[in-house]
Each structure stands twice: as structure tokens, then as C-alpha cells.
Design goal:
This protein has seven helices and nine strands, in the order βββαβαβαααβαβαββ. The structure holds adenosine-5'-triphosphate and magnesium ion. The site of adenosine-5'-triphosphate has 12 residues, from strand 1, strand 2 and helix 1.
Length: 249
């Protein structure tokens, strides 16, 4: 795509007003989406011609062998990476038509990422980590603190606000990461192996939080090997292999 085809915030009808985007029918639409990497002269096809629609409010779990393309798919949905072929709409926005600055703001407003290894900022307390993505709002600092401590209370960490990441257990760090993911009340929650590094009790807590986020109306998309999430009868399960979706039930 040539540079003059790339759109910025000014080209978006409603400018940066994202209100109403969470009312759209489909959170994700992918048509013929591929992601190819060139390593020297060798082409690696991480995602191969994926067609996929995810309704707003759905809970989708994607499993598949290591290297099958799960993280690649999640990063593309989360606007962290881009497709090399195909069309993608996130909340009805044709996200690949926009420039990086728009995509970054879109990502902060509309998606919340939860990683396998938490990715908290090591020099910030639990409260500050949750406040970090809230910088896109113009609310006063005290209000942000109030909002962030409410979110930490939601995940059972009201007594850990001032702890630095190393002063928290793995399960607590992941719950801080979840509170941070929902800091801007995004319509879509994306999680990459969120329970892989946790003991069973913490993993169960994370499963329950993801369930309750979905029940509160959020689209939840989880890449995982966790059988307890995969076997949850209420979730839609996609199986991916060699970059293609091979089953969907
Ligand atoms: N930056 C990159 N450059 C080249 N190849 C890449 C790159 N990132 C990923 N790949 C390749 O793309 C394929 C899909 O990778 P991806 O990380 O999406 O797999 P995954 O399903 O998440 O695996 P895992 O379960 O181990 O996390 C793999 O073969 C991987 O080696
Ligand atoms: Mg992965």
C-alpha cells in the first residue's frame, strides 16, 4: 500500500471519538488474512488465508501446537502486528488502512492485552501500572487513582496497591495485568496463554475473571493450551494448525 493510502485520525469520520464502537455486531472480521515473514530468502507463513468472524460479546479460545500462529493472530487482532495479505476490521474499523499513531490510540481505547509473563513495568507499583494506560484520558490524577484502585479491588488486590511487581506473587502480578488490561474499559480482551505460568489456584482465579469479563459483555479472545479453558462448554473453540483454522466449534 502506498503512503498516501494510509489514513490518520483526521480521516476517520468520528475523529478519535470511539463511543459506540462497542455496539458493533462483530468485534473481529478477517478475510483472507495472511502474515508472512521473510527470513533471508526463506518465507515463513505464520498465518495462512484466515477467514474469521467474532461477534461482539463472544468468548473465543484458540488452541493449536507451538508455532501454529496463535500469537501472530492475537497480535494482528490487537493491532500490534499487521497482516501482509487480506482485510481486517476490528469493531468495524478497517484497521490496516490507518497509520501507526491512530492504531496505537485505537489499541489503547479498545483492546486490553494480557500476556503469559504479565509484562508489568518493574519500577511502578500495582496502582501505577494500572494507571499507566489511563494516560489517554484527561481525568485528574486523583480520579485515575480512584479508578485504578477500584479495578484492583475487582481482582481482589485492594491490599496490594503499593507493591512493586517483585513484591507480588505470580498470580497477583497476572491479576494486576488484568486490571491494567481493562483500565480503559475496552470492548475486546486479548490474552496470550494467560494461565501458563501460574499455579492451579491462581490459574482458576484468572479463568473466573475472564469468564466474568465476558459475562459483563466484553469480547474475550484467549490463545491457550489450558484444557480447562478449552473445555469450557460456553466458549467457542478454534483449532489452528500451520497458520490455518482447522476446526471451529
Ligand atoms: N518475527 C518473526 N519472524 C519470522 N518468523 C516468525 C516471527 N514471529 C513468528 N514467526 C514464526 O511464525 C510461526 C507462528 O508463530 P507464533 O508465535 O504465532 O506461534 P504460536 O502458535 O503462538 O506458538 P506458541 O504456542 O509456541 O506460543 C512460527 O513458525 C514462528 O517461528
Ligand atoms: Mg504464542
Amino acid at each position: 500500500m502506498s503512503d498516501d493510502m494510509i489514513l490518520g485520525a483526521d480521516d476517520f469520520d468520528e475523529s478519535m471519538d470511539f463511543d459506540g464502537l462497542d455496539k458493533v455486531e462483530f468485534s473481529v472480521k478477517m478475510k483472507g488474512v495472511s502474515r508472512k515473514y521473510l527470513l533471508g530468502s526463506r518465507e515463513v507463513i505464520a498465518l495462512n488465508q484466515v477467514d474469521l468472524k467474532i461477534r461482539s460479546g463472544e468468548y473465543v479460545v484458540v488452541s493449536g501446537p507451538s508455532g501454529s500462529g496463535k500469537t501472530t493472530m492475537l497480535n494482528i487482532i490487537g493491532c500490534i502486528d499487521y497482516a501482509t495479505e487480506g482485510r481486517i476490521h476490528i469493531l468495524d474499523v478497517p484497521i490496516e488502512d490507518y497509520d501507526e499513531s491512530f492504531r496505537a490510540t485505537f489499541r489503547l481505547n479498545n483492546t486490553g492485552f494480557i500476556f503469559q509473563s504479565y509484562n508489568l513495568i518493574s519500577t511502578l507499583t500495582a496502582l501505577e501500572n494500572v494507571m499507566f494506560p489511563m494516560q489517554i484520558t484527561d481525568k485528574p490524577e486523583e480520579e485515575l487513582e480512584q479508578d485504578a484502585s477500584e479495578l484492583l479491588k475487582k481482582v481482589g488486590l485492594e491490599n496490594r496497591l503499593d507493591h512493586l511487581p517483585w513484591q507480588l506473587s505470580s498470580g497477583e502480578q497476572q491479576r494486576v495485568a488484568i486490571a491494567r488490561a481493562i483500565a480503559n474499559d475496552p470492548a475486546i480482551i486479548l490474552a496470550d496463554e494467560p494461565t501458563a505460568n501460574l499455579d492451579e489456584e491462581s490459574a482458576e482465579m484468572v479463568r473466573q475473571i475472564l469468564d466474568s469479563l465476558n459475562k459483563s459483555g466484553k469480547t474475550v479472545i484467549v490463545m491457550t493450551h489450558d484444557e480447562k479453558i478449552i473445555n469450557n462448554s460456553e466458549v467457542r473453540h478454534l483449532l489452528i494448525r500451520d497458520g490455518s483454522v482447522i476446526s471451529d466449534d
